[in-house]
Specification:
The complex is a heterodimer.
Chain A (H helix, E strand, L loop, with lengths): L9 H33 L4 H15 L3 H11 L9 H26 L3 H9 L4 H31 L11 H12 L2 H30 L7
Chain B lengths: L5 H36 L4 H15 L3 H16 L5 H27 L2 H9 L4 H31 L11 H12 L2 H32 L2
Helix pairs in contact in B: 1-2, 1-4, 1-7, 2-4, 3-4, 4-6, 5-6, 6-8, 7-8
The chains are: A mainly alpha, B mainly alpha.
């Protein structure tokens, strides 16, 4: 075991970690947008739209993320839509994360009893005010743990983008391995970097959660 | 180049057996380990609780792909001898399964009220008897839906073994796609096979959850 040959590749590692973070944040943002839109559609009155969203959720939750990335990267070009690796991974991971977000956001909204909405209406609040002051804060609190743990899974899942040669951390690992032939050492270091990033996000989310959702829980 | 034929479809279906083998191996070794982790997590000894929590936390904070490569290249380093790839892959999937199932089952065990343990001890049951006859059956019922849900994650996760060269479903898809130049048809079929495996489990998990909810 010899970790020294890896030392000169620290810049590549840092660059890879940055691309991993970019991929995670972009996919999370688009995924949450999809999640909000999907949750609205699921609670909406247009039946075909509801079926469409249901089909999307089941399709993306019951097939491997790796295959989804392959389809976006290898199959879309046959339709004339050729995406570079990073963009293809972004699209595939956004759709994957979005499928989980819809369910999380919808169940967050559904966790608010109907009577609370009615109570707000009785107080003469407008529809927007009811949503903003009565539904949204507890719904956010209920959805927060699920969203954040899904975010960490997304961070780890971006490693699959290496398989279409997006320049993220795991792909950098393959590059360093090909230069140093220190396979075990390289992947041990890579695992440690992912671990550090995941723990940092978990700590950050715990702090933000504690600060943002301080009001007491009624039982 | 040749066109997509029945042979290609057959090779996809044949590759399914490796997907199944990987899932069975992961469950066979991972489930007992998960039970150990879950019991350790609710132990009376704080040091044991911390150790188990740390193990679970570490495994859950590393990508599955990372675990696979770590053990694939690491086993010879740890053991000093070459081991077949299947052993390294089994170790990685076992730990992955153990960490996630362990945490799911801990949740189930903790959801059973403390008073149930006390009631058992009032009846003169030993700690093991309390666990075996009072706590475990209730915890099992509670944790069955997420356990089935995790099974879906595991099936999807076996696709990563393709990257280490296992000719399971995902890898067979790559091979067929390269041979026939028909990525659309091939990957659509691969996705459809995974979908056909996972959707029934997802629906089952959901119906279990609904049934549990109704009984409350």
């Amino acid at each position: 075991m010899n970790f020294l040959p890896l030392w000169r590749y620290q810049n590549q590692l840092i660059d890879g970690a940055i691309v991993t973070l970019e991929l995670t944040v972009v996919a999370a943002l688009f995924g949450i947008l999809i999640g909000v839109a999907g949750a609205v559609a699921l609670n909406g009155r247009i039946a075909p739209l509801r079926w469409l969203v249901r089909g999307y959720i089941e399709l993306f939750r019951n097939t491997p993320s790796l295959i989804q990335i392959f389809i976006v990267f290898f199959v879309l070009p046959t339709f004339g839509l050729k995406l570079p690796a990073f963009e293809a991974a972004c699209v595939a991971l956004s759709l994957y994360f979005g499928a989980y977000s819809v369910e999380i956001i919808r169940s967050g909204l559904d966790s608010i009893p109907r009577s609370q909405v009615e109570a707000g209406q009785c107080l003469g609040l407008s529809g927007w005010q009811v949503f903003r002051h009565i539904v949204l804060p507890p719904a956010l609190r209920n959805a927060y743990p699920a969203v954040t743990s899904q975010f960490v899974l997304l961070l780890l899942g971006t490693s699959l983008a290496s398989q279409v040669a997006a320049d993220e951390l795991f792909h950098v690992a393959g590059f360093i391995e090909s230069r140093t032939y220190r396979s075990f050492e390289v992947y041990a270091v890579i695992c440690a970097v992912y671990f550090a990033m995941a723990m940092a996000f978990k700590a950050l989310f715990a702090l933000v959660g504690a600060a943002a959702f301080r009001w007491p829980r009624r039982r | 180049m040749r066109s997509f034929s029945l042979i290609d479809l057959a090779s996809l279906v044949a590759a399914l057996r490796w997907t199944v083998v990987l899932v069975v191996l992961a469950l066979a070794f991972g489930a007992p380990l998960a039970l150990g982790l879950a019991m350790g997590r609710i132990s009376r000894f704080a040091s044991l609780r911390w150790a188990m929590a740390a193990i679970i936390q570490i495994i859950q904070s590393v990508p599955l792909l990372g675990l696979l490569f770590f053990f694939y290249f690491g086993m010879p380093v740890f053991l000093g001898i070459q081991v077949p790839a299947i052993i390294a892959v089994t170790v990685a999937y076992t730990l992955y399964t153990a960490a996630f199932l362990g945490e799911i089952w801990r949740g189930g065990l903790e959801a059973v009220k403390q008073a149930q343990w006390e009631a058992g001890s009032c009846l003169g049951l030993s700690l093991w008897q309390q666990f075996r006859h009072i706590i475990a059956p209730q915890a099992l019922r509670l944790s069955l839906p997420p356990t089935v849900g995790f099974l879906v994650q595991l099936i999807k996760g076996t696709s990563l073994a393709s990257i280490l060269g296992f000719v399971e479903l995902a890898r067979a898809g790559q091979v067929v796609s390269a041979a026939t130049f028909q990525p659309l048809l091939t990957y659509a079929l691969v996705a459809a096979i995974y979908f056909a495996l996972c959707l029934p489990l997802t629906l089952w998990s959901r119906s279990l959850e609904a049934r549990l909810d109704g009984s409350r």
